[in-house]
Amino acid sequence: MAEPAPAVSSDTLRFPDKLYEGYVFDLDGTIYLGDELLPGVKRLILELRERGKKVIFLSNNPTKDPEMYSEKLTKLGLPTPKEETVNTVVTMTQWLLQNHPDATVFPIAEEPLKNALRDAGIKMSENPEEIDIVIASYDRTFEYRKLQIAFDAIWFHKRAMLVTTNPDRYCPFPGGRGEPDAAAIVAAIEACTGAKCEVNVGKPDPIMLKTIMDMIGLDAKDCVMTGDRLYTEIRMALDAGMPSAVVFTGETTPEMLEAETDENKPEYVLDRIDRLIPQQIWEELGWTEDDE
Ligand SMILES: [Mg+2]
User: Fold this and answer.
1) Counting C-beta atoms within 10 Å of the first and last residue's C-beta, which end of the chain has fewer, N or C?
2) d(CA 266, CA 235)
3) Distance from Cα 228 to the centre of ligand 1, integer Å
4) Domain limits of the chain?
C-alpha cells in the first residue's frame, strides 16, 4: 500500500453525508499512484458495488483499450470488469454513434480507437474526398502522410470537421519524462488548415461526463466525480452539473485548493478516498483510518 497522505487540518475537509447512485473516478493520483492502490480504495469500491452503486473509472488516454485498465486494476488487487472503465476510446465512439452515426471518419489514432470504431460499425476512410470528420488523437504513429490526408479533407476539399479525443499536451511518465499527446496533433492540423478543433470528448470537457451518463442511464446530479486535479475532473464536473470531490492523494494540495475562488471549488474535500462513505456508515461497518 502507498504511504498515507500527511494529515490535513479538519476545517479544510468536507465529507458527503449521503450516498449517491453513481461514482465516477479519475485513476492516477485518485485510485492508484504508480503501481499501488491508494489507502481506502479497495474497501470503498467493494462497499459501493455491494450497495448496488454504479462505479466508473475514467482516463483520457486513447492509446489503451478499456480492458487494459480493468487488467491493471485487477492486477493491483481490485478485480474490475471492463464495463466499469471508460477512456476516450469509449467516449469518442459513443459521441460519434450519438451525434454522427453515418459520418465517414479518418482517425489519426493507434489501434485501440480504430478497433473500437470498426466494432461500432463506423465507416473509416483515408480518402480525403469522402472524410466528414478528422479525429486527432494521441498517436505515436503520426506521420506526414496522415497530416496530408487531414489537410486535404479539411482545407482542400473543405468538407471535414476536426475533433479530438483529449486536450492533453503531453502524457506524463513516472520519473518526470513524458510523451507528446493529442494536443500536438491537433496543433499541427490547425496550423496548416487554419481550422479550429470543434469537439473534445476528454476531460475537462463536460461531453465526457454527459456521454457516460447516457451510457449508464443516470443523471449528473445523482453522481459524484472524484479526482485529484481541479482543472480537469473537478472543472468537468462543475460544468456538467455533477457534484464533485477533490482528494489530496495526487496533485492538488490544501494550499492549492485554498488559493482557488469558490466557483472553482468542489462540494467535497477528502484526505482519503473512502471518506466518500458517510460517517454513519463508517461507524456501522466499524471502519477506522488505521485499516484499509
Ligand atoms: Mg489524476
Assistant:
1) N
2) 9
3) 5
4) 22-60+203-285, 101-199
Q: Give me ligand 1 centre to Cα 186, in Å.
A: 23
pLDDT given at position 172: 83
Please give the mean pLDDT across all residues of the chain. Answer: 95
Domain at 101-199: CATH code: 3.40.50.1000
β-bridge partners, 23: 55, 224
Position 247, amino acid: V
Cell 482545407, residue? 155
CA distance linking residue 263 with residue 279, whole number of Å: 26
CA 278 remoteness from chain centre: 25
pLDDT (tens digit per residue) in 94-118: 999 999 999 999 999 999 999 999 9
Can you list the alpha helix ranges (DSSP code H) found in 36-159? 41-50, 66-75, 88-99, 111-119, 144-151
pLDDT of residue 2: 54
CATH topology of domain 22-60+203-285: Rossmann fold (3.40.50)
Q: How many other CB atoms sit within 10 Å of the CB of residue 52? A: 7
Which residues have beta carbons under 5 A from ligand 1 (an ion)?
26, 28-29, 228, 250
pLDDT-based confidence at 3, cuts 50/70/90?
Answer: low
